[in-house]
What does this fold into?
Amino acid sequence: MSTRAGLNVIHAARSSVVDAARRYGPPSRRGKGEGDGGRATAPGAAKANRSSESGVRTTGVVVRRVAPGSVLKVSALFSLSLGLVLLVAGVLLWSGAHSIGLIDNLETFMADIGFTDFRLEGDQVLKAWLIVGGVVVVGGTFASVLMALLYNLLADVVGGVRLLLQEDDTAP
It folds into this structure.
């Protein structure tokens, strides 16, 4: 193939791409032309495909924004339940360690190495655990809302996260 023929092939390919772009428009305007009856589709609207032989419907969805209020509610409940689970686990571990004498052995060990006034008091440990747990709950909730706001800012730049959902319509 000569250089001139190669350039003609490249020019023809470029022309067909440019013609297709002019015909269909930019990606944000696709679906608003005459091919779909003139109806406009919302940006990020789901497009469903059905595979006739498998009975599986797939839908593409783009998550463009996350509501910070809903993230606040879900994150607060999640953090609070996680804090309660850790509190109950801590109380159970403390009770088990106290019943087998581990707390007394630790206090004796600390006295042997020079800390004569060292004592582990259950109520003080529980108060400290509650304070730390409260800070973790508030901090985790705040961090989740901050991440949702950051996601919204970044999604404006990159277009969001694309999800592919599949629904199986066949009977089990």
